[in-house]
Structure formats: C-alpha cells, structure tokens
Amino acid sequence: MMPRNRGIIDIVCLVKVVYMDIKRTKLNIGVSISLQIITTVVTIVVRRYLLQCCGNEVNGLNALYISIIGFLSVADLGIGTAITFSMYRPIVEGNQSQVAALYHYLGKAYHIVGTIILTVGLALMPWLKYFAKDYILVDANIYITFLIMLISVVITYFFANKKSLINAHKNDYLTTIITQGSLILQYILQIVVLYITKSFEAYLICRIVAGCIQWISTEIVARKKYRNIIKIKTKVDCETKRELKKNIKAMFMHKIGHALVNSVDSVVISAFVGVVSLGEFSNYSTILASMNGIVMLVFTSITSVVGHMMVQEDSSKTKRYFEVFHLLNFSIGIVFFLGYYAVIDSFIAMIFSPDLVVSKSISVVITINGFVQFMRRNALTFRDATGQFYGDRWKPLFEGICNIVLSIILVNILGVPGVIVATIITNLLICYVIEPYILYKNVFNVSPKQYYLKNYAFVGVFCVALAIMDIISVSFKQPIFNLLINGVLSIVVSLGISSIIFLINKNALFDMKELLKLDKR
Fold it and tell me: By C-alpha distance, which of 140, 124, 159, 250 is closest to 204?
C-alpha cells in the first residue's frame, strides 16, 4: 500500500505546485501589465514634452544614444539569463547554499560588466559625431548628454544580481513594481524638468535619479525576503562554473546578435539618413516598443514558472504547454499589432504633430517587423526557461552580420524602410528556422516541421489581415475619428481571425481549458 499511497501523494503535490505556479503567474502578469500600461501612457506624454521643448532633432539624438548604449550592453554576456536559469533547480530543491553561491557569482560578474560598459562608452565618445549625420542641428552638447545617459545605464548593473535573485523565485511582480514605479517617477520628473528648464541635460539627469531610487528599493526588498541567502558566503563549485561558462559563452553570442539587429538599425538610420529622420522613426518605434513591452510581460512573467516546471515535468507535457502559448502568442500579436497599424498614423498626428507622420511604407514595415519579432517570443521564452542557449550560439552572430550588410545595402536603395526590411528578412530566414529547431531537437525530441508550417502560416495570415485593414480603413480630416473607427475595425478583424485559428486548433484549446479547470480546483 505504501508505494500506491506515495504515488497519490506525489500527484497531489504536483497538482498543488502547478496550481500555485498558475496563481503566481497570474499575479506576475497582472501587476506587470497594469504598471506597463501606466508607464506607456506616461512615456507618450514625456515624448510629447520632449518634442515640444527640445525639438525632433534632440528626440532623434536621444534614440541614437539608447541604441549605442544598447549595443554596449552586449558586454553583460547574457550572464543574468544563464545564471538565473541555473538557480531554478537549487531553489526547487531548497539548496540555499547553491543559490547563494550563484547570487554572489552573478554580483561580481555584473560589477565587472558595468565597469567595462563605462570604459568602452567613454572611449567611444570622441567618435559620436560620426554616428549622427546632421548632429550640428541639435541644440545640445552631444558629449555631456551621452555621458549622463551612459552613467544612468551603468548604475543598473550594481543591483542586477538582486533583481535576478527575486525573479528566480518567481516574484517577478516585485521587480516589476520597482522598475516600472521608478520609470513612472522618472517620467514625472522629466515632464516637470522639461516644463521648467527645457533642458535636454536636465531631462537625462532624471534617469540617474530614478536609477538610484530603483537601486535602493531593490536592495531593501532583496535583503528583506532573502536575507539568509545573501548572508551565506560561499563560492560556485568547479562543475557548476564550467556549466555556467558554457551557457554564458552561448548567451554572449545571443547578446551580440540581438545588439547587431536591434541597436544597429537606429545607428544606420542616423549615420546614413540623419537624426531628424531617426527622430520621426523613433516616435513610431518607441510607441511600438512600449506596446510590445505590455504584451511581452506575459511571456517574461512565465519564464521562471516554465523553468520550475521543467524540473518536474516530462517533455511531452512541456510541448503541450508550448503549443498553447504559441497560439496565445499569435492571438495576442494579431490583436495588438493590427491595432497598432490601424491607429498609429492618426495617433502620431493627434498626440505629436501631423508633420511627424511618416510614409505609409515605413509604418507597414515597422508593423510587420514588430509582429515577426513578437512571434519568436514563445520559442525564446521556453529556450530561456530550459537553458537551451548553447545549441544555436552561432546563429545570432550570423544573423547580426547579415542584418548589418542588408541594412547598409537596402538603406541606400529604399531609405529608412530598407533598414527594417533587412531585419524582417534575417528574422524569417534565420531566426524562424534555427530557434525552433534547437528547442524541438533538445527539449521535445520531435521534428519541428509542423511548427515551421504553422509559424510561417501565422505570418502570412497577419499580412493578409494587414492588407484587409488597409482596404477597409477610413480616412477623415479629424485624426480622432480615424483612430476610433479604424481601431474598432482592427479589433473585429483580429478577433475574427483568432477565433477561426482557435477553432482549427481544438487540441490546444482543450489544453487551455484544462489549465483553467486546474486553477479553479
């Protein structure tokens, strides 16, 4: 009787763990989305003030700084992701000594990274004028403003290990509250400062103030919740260190690829077209990034939960969850990105200025690129949660080099749209092939053929939906009417398509219902 009773106990424990994971995931997602929505609204208000007080040239310079420092951030080698993944098993097993060793190892690594970024950033300062084609139009000192921006970013590396420790325990909502709360405070300070001083330098100093507040808040929360872990002074053993170095090397390649794709686009536009055009482009890309940040939080919040479940579940069950989240990935993506395309021109005209509305070709490629990259999110979430960093370590470098070459070629042919088209091509031909292959081969142990067909089909469906939206959209003189009517039309089209997709994929719909039933027990 004992083995049978033991089996029943194991099942009950497993149900209990999954139930608590779902509850924790809901809390993480709920808090994250609520704060991100508030942050997005305040971001738009800040950008409006920046444009009004400092001009579009300064707006473009700000976007250039963010891209350059984003590229410098490749120095963190993906340390945080690799080590946070390594914390999942010892946390589940209650091995506080191992968690403490990883925590302290991460702290030392981040301090080194912050110093490297500061040093390289300072060395790069004399060359800034070559990255901004028309920088002489900007009414600001490009060296002082870049230095302030650099310091505001370097600060974040001195408490990143505590943030990772909190997230590894599935308390993402705490770091989200701190991060988003600090951002909201930063934006409020920036609005006040711009209104009073109209100074770009003072605007950037607010970033340092908010960063220090975020540092202090993270320290307080981490020391209160994980005092016992932080107090343990121990070192990572040789075997763990070897595994970490292997994953960190792989993540370094991923970071390089990400930087070459996402940060270089703005630099290419600034260097070949100018900061004025980059300013116009950044209005669209910033709003897209803010909106994308809301929906990305859904997947960010489940990463630690999936990581914990991988310790306890078999590959077939994990694959079922993966397929459910893939459908959710598409449904969320088509609603948000089709809605973005439907209202973005009217929104820019109404909130900023009609003069800042770009050509339709630019808004089309920005939207498609946003959706294409968003459809990678599910595979990347499961990759991070399952530690599959090493298998596709050369992919990001190849992707980044291809993106740079294509961007430079196409920007001279198509202008700004050419840079975005280059990113779309590299995503579809490289990322869409390699990332799922590694996951299916090493985690699910089956062929990714069906996933390939489904993923490319989803992109095709979205492009068709985009064409339909272009045909049925209305155009009045008042932007507010265009925004409201086209927004409603996009919701009708996207929800209609999502409903059809879910009806076709009945198995995934059944799995989703099972998860919901489990939450109600």
Answer: 140
- Closest to 109 measured CA to CA, from 141, 156, 77, 148: 77
Distance of CA 51 to the CA centre of its chain: 25
Q: Which two tokens stand for residue 119?
A: 């040093």
Check if the beta carbon of residue 51 is closer than 8 Å to that of residue 352: yes
Three-state DSSP state, 412? helix
Structure-token pair, residue 273 = 């077209």
Q: What is the pLDDT along the chain (521 residues), one digit of tens a residue?
A: 444 444 444 334 434 444 445 555 566 666 667 777 787 888 888 988 999 888 888 888 888 888 888 777 655 556 766 777 778 788 878 888 988 888 888 888 888 888 888 998 899 888 888 887 766 667 788 889 999 999 998 998 888 888 888 888 877 778 878 888 898 899 999 999 998 999 999 999 999 999 999 999 999 999 998 888 888 888 888 887 887 777 777 666 767 776 677 778 888 998 888 888 888 898 998 888 877 777 766 666 555 556 555 555 555 667 777 888 888 889 889 999 999 999 999 999 998 888 889 999 999 999 999 999 999 988 887 877 776 766 677 787 788 889 999 999 999 999 999 999 999 999 999 999 998 998 888 888 888 899 999 999 999 999 999 999 999 998 888 889 999 999 999 999 999 998 888 888 766 666 655 554 444 44
What tokens were used for 495? Answer: 């929800």
